[in-house]
Amino acid sequence: MSLVVRREGSFLRPYAMKRFHHRSAGDPEIKQMFLDEARIAGLLRHPNVVSVLDVGEDATGPFLIMDYVEGVSLAQLIRGRQISAGEPVPAQIGLRILVQAARGLAAAHELTSPSGAHLELVHRDVSPQNILLDLGGTVRIADFGIARAAGRSTETERGVLKGKLGYLAPETLQFADSDHRVDLFALGIVAFELFTGRRLYKGADVKETANRILHEPPPDLGMHRPDLPDGLVELVFRLLAKEPELRPATAREVAATLDHLLVDVVSAEGPTPLDEFVVQQVALDDIEARRAQLAAAMSAPPAAAPSEARPARPRWPLALGAVVTLAVIGGAALALSAGWSSAPEPDAARAPIAPAVEVERPPPSPATVAAPSEPAPSAPAPVEEPEAEAREEAPAVERPRPARTRRARRRRPARGASVPVVHEY
Hints:
425 residues; alpha+beta; Transferase(Phosphotransferase), domain 1; three-stranded antiparallel beta sheet
């Protein structure tokens, strides 16, 4: 993930750029799957989701342009809480985080196309790293569509897993059919880690981790946090059920349950705003450093996008064409002048009016349709002046090289043009 400054008209705005680093990203079919999934994710607009604003490909490979979130990931918050305070996140704060995350998942799972078709968008990689908290107290889920694209790319490969191993649902590990409830299982793992400050499914190796997810009974969160509401303990237990049908039916149902629990906790304790808590946990020096870096990038002169950096075309063919054009027009003018001066009487002088209209319309400019096809001016051979007889017998008008050049430029793909990046760091 990198931070980029993008020019849009007269404005510069910061965005996040994410590249597709899947091991098979060079495969054209896999690359197209990634781009297709990313475009579907681009239809999703919700306050609790990091929006995909653009998708494209440049010389480095496929990329996404997403909202820039100034804040921290949930993984950073949990780790920082462990180091600085040595205690888990308070119940009210954890509920505020989880309810917003559940709303973002609900919006994704219920997403429809413009025609009303259900798109069945599933994240497949819900984890603390992909849950972002901005300094204003808004929680957003990032990277929608990426895990699913990587998953589709391995449909024909046996024994290949998708997503972070410690957050995979049992049906995913068993390569069984799955749906949006894999995200709910992952949300249950996130909830356990948020309130306890430690990983739930972490083994010495891949095999041990997978066996724990498949066979270890769901934990009792109340044993680790007796201060948590019973309703929350029960909800986490249901989210971590091995069988998908035993989990809550939808993310919207999960969000509604968390909302009721949050109301009860706030009534008992009084409100604790999430933004104040996040600001207290964030290293302000890091935020100020990033802001200074961003301000410097936005004040620097813009760099040309790769598609705009084209070699300068030589000017001498245009100058030569202009000289030929002037010569042709001058000759025509002299001929007309001679014809008019030899007219015997005024009435006869009016006769050439119709031909004069045609003569005044200059022939196609050699600078436009007859530019020489020679290479750069530094090459001596193309610059040699041809003989006069050759110029008369083979006029440059018959060589439509520039027209082909213009068509070729129109067909050239504007690589990177969809992302006019000014600075990337």
